[in-house]
Amino acid sequence: MGGANIFIIYADPSGSNVTLSPRAGKGNFQPNYDQGIQAYLLEGSGIADGKMTANVRCSSCIEWHGNTLAVNSTKSNWIWAAKDGPAVSSSSQGANLQMHDDNGQFTFDLTQSRSGNSLNPFADQATTTAAAGSSTSSAAASSGERDSGDGDSLSASSSSSGEESGSSEGGDGGGDQILIAHGVIMSLAWVIFFPLGAIIIRALPSRHVVRLHYMTQVFAYILALTGMALGIYVAVKPEYLINIYHPIIGLVVMGLATIQPILGTIHHRIYKAKQQRTGWAVAHVWLGRIVITLAIINGGLGLRMAANTKDGEIAYGVVAGVVWLVWMAVAIRHEVKNARATGASESQKHTEEKMAKRDTYKAFE
User: Fold this and answer.
1) Which of 85, 97, 103, 152 could cysteine-pair with 148, CB 3.0–4.6 Å?
2) In terms of Cα–Cα distance, which of 7, 21, 39 is closest to 94?
3) pLDDT for res 192
4) Chain-centre distance of CA 329, in angstroms?
5) Which residue, 13, 179, 5, is CA-closest to 95?
6) Is 52 exposed, middle or buried (0-12, 13-18, 19+ CB in 10 A)?
7) 76 near 108, Cβ under 8 Å?
8) How far apart, in whole angstroms, are the C-alpha atoms of residue 324 and residue 289?
9) Ramachandran angles phi, psi of 33, nearest 5°
């Protein structure tokens, strides 16, 4: 829905009227309320007989965000989407909405639209699906052939301009490509390279293992920084960054990941000096496990938010799950081995202390 001019309607608290929320589609994520879209509800809007009707007059819909509505098009492309479930019951135009679970497309012959000097061309009609005018465009979104009920939210969106625009979604293809790049790069970083670096330090016997671990994690961190930059570029609206769970979790993860090299460096220097693990090592190891696990989960949430294909979500889940299980198996094996070695060392130390005491007692006999 990138580039779309969207009219979203949902039930208001009274249950008999609708709230109109004009929003600008920026990509495959929840659109935010756009005060710059001058759209208003006209007489005849409301909820009756289980159907929502919105007669909408828009005074700024000929052009929006670099797109233009071809008012002389005989086949203007539009899309719709709907969400089943409890009524939103909000009069706020900026209400937080769940992703739709049904959608479709349709076309208009805008040459057959009519408005003239009328402020409300729908006044003489009981219900209408949609219409768009000449100097200003007007649209009415109702439940149409879909009996949505008063518990649904329904949106009708115009595509980008042109009679032969093809896809009804139109819009910001570049934004979609950036989102794809963001997802791929973040998946490589958090599903492949960060776990790989953690596995290397535990499973690869080599005097260069620390350096190899360090290099792998630095490379993964650079990938993650690149992916974060792409994500922020797409989600430049402050409200989006604040209100949506995926980028919030992502920023927290990246903040914690920035601490990891510091903890690792302190731990390594102390270990070289004392040849034993300290609290710094425990903090470095467990923070890494928590951050990587949280990032992998957040990747799945991002795919869901971006309305990825079911196959894509399954593929991500399978790969991420297998990698995580292998990583955890290596980590558990290492912890068990360490515990046994520590136990054996403590037992040997205790035995040596007892022998030393016995030898001292004999010396005094």
Assistant:
1) 152
2) 21
3) 96
4) 29
5) 13
6) buried
7) yes
8) 10
9) -55, 130
Measured distance CA(30)–CA(24) in Å, rounded: 10
Structure tokens at 23: 């929003």
Listed in sequence order, the residues at least 6 apart from 309 whose beta carbon sits closer than 8 Å to its beta carbon are none
Rounded Cα gap, residues 267 and 317, in angstroms: 33
Assign 54 to helix, strand or coil.
Answer: strand
Whether the full predicted model's pTM is greater than 0.70, yes or no, is no
Q: How many CB atoms lie within 10 A of CB 289?
A: 16
Pair 159, 171: CB distance under 8 Å: yes
Instruction: Using the structure block, give the residue that is written with the tokens 């403590």.
Output: 346
pLDDT the model gives residue 6: 87
C-beta atoms surrounding 152 within 10 Å: 25
Task: Compute the distance between CA of residue 116 and CA of residue 111 in angstroms, rounded to an integer.
Answer: 13
- Cβ neighbours for 269, distance < 8 A, ≥ 6 positions apart: none
Tally of residues, the chain: 365
Collapse the DSSP code of 52 into the 3-class scheme (helix H, G, I; strand E, B; otherwise coil) and give the result.
Answer: strand
Instruction: Give 4's DSSP letter.
Output: -
**Hey, what's the torsion of the CAs at 43, 45, 47, 50, to 10 degrees?**
120
**Residues of the chain falling short of pLDDT 70:** 1-2, 27-28, 65-66, 114-119, 123-176, 236-243, 307, 341-365
For 306, the token pair is 């971006």
Phi and psi at 68, nearest 5°, equal: -135, 135
Provide the 8-state DSSP code for 323: H
Q: Which residues pair with 47 in a beta bridge?
A: 52
